[in-house]
Amino acid sequence: MLEALSGFVPPHPVHNTNLPAAWGVDDQWVQSLTGVITRYHAGPGQATSDLAFEAARRVLDASGGQAPNAVLLATSTPDRPCPATAPLLAARLGMVGVPAFDLAAVCTGFIYALAVGQGLITAGTASRVLVVAADIWSTLVHPDDRSAGVVLGDGAGAVLLRAGQKNEPGALLGFDLGSDGTGEDLITIRGAGARERAMAAPLSERERYFTMAGFRVFQRAVTAMTQSTKRTLTRADWLPDQLNHLVPHQANSRILAAVAERLGIPTQRVITTLARTGNTGVASIPLALADAAADNRLSPGERVVLTAFGGGLTWGSAALYWPNLPATASPYPAQPLKPTRP
């Protein structure tokens, strides 16, 4: 069950008015197309493990309880291709010796990691599991790619899971997970992997950066998240109108609106931080939860469903009754944002 929660974005906000002039976009255009106003970028020298560490430190401080005995890091932007980043994260947290590993399912990774964490607890392998989700996308967007650059941001979130009873608030009531590898090229970074090293001719420089087939992804994302949410509602024995909050992966505003419409869920029940953080990949759901918890928009006992779609292709959903958590700090920097065009 969920015991504590945190979120973190690096202290480098990029407002729509600060986007590169060469992209030829303005604030109104970006908002109407994506719903994003601000995104945060990691600073010079910052890696995924640095963002993950800050989110993890915050959730451990909030819990004030027994230390976790397993660490899962959901990420598609690890510090290195080898080794995994989770052991380094665990060591920085003073948890040398505990099992620690990365999990890569792109934007669905947080939900996958929740399911794996619950499995470790159910199997008796761990009594408390630290689940961290962190991505740094800003360094993987090509400088000329405005379509990805306007929406993608960096961030991290973390939760602490512990053993509990199924009827307790915070218990994970059910999951729906799926994948379709025939769509691997719809959301991808083609370079820097074993496939490229096995090719006779090198890939172009552009193929070493993030690419996404926008319209096809939109269609697949809306369908997958809608169907996955419906299956999860069925497993939890809930009706859509009984759902207090839907917390989707913060892809873009049009996807979120289409999913809510197909489910018949009023938009005011959809928790979103898209305007403030952009699409932070795997971190978007825990960041949205941390934002809502810090603002007291989640109440104990409320029905909550998380849902996501990402590269792979992957998708997943999870249901829970919201628990009575320790106070959750805001994931945002204390300094106010002052948007100006440089």
TrEMBL record:
Residue ranges crossing the lipid bilayer per the database entry: none
Instruction: Return the Gene3D superfamilies for the record.
Output: 3.40.47.10
Q: Which InterPro entries match?
A: ACP_syn_III_C, ACP_syn_III_N, Thiolase-like
The answer, when asked if Coiled coil is one of the entry's keywords, is: no
Q: Where is each Beta-ketoacyl-[acyl-carrier-protein] synthase III N-terminal domain found?
A: 101-181
Q: Name one Pfam family in it.
A: ACP_syn_III_C
What are the alphabetically sorted keywords of the record?
A: Acyltransferase, Cytoplasm, Transferase
Residue span(s) of domain Beta-ketoacyl-[acyl-carrier-protein] synthase III C-terminal: 233-322
Q: Which PANTHER family match?
A: 3-OXOACYL-[ACYL-CARRIER-PROTEIN] SYNTHASE 3, BETA-KETOACYL-[ACYL-CARRIER-PROTEIN] SYNTHASE III
Name the chain's protein: Beta-ketoacyl-ACP synthase III
What species does this protein belong to?
Answer: Streptomyces lunalinharesii
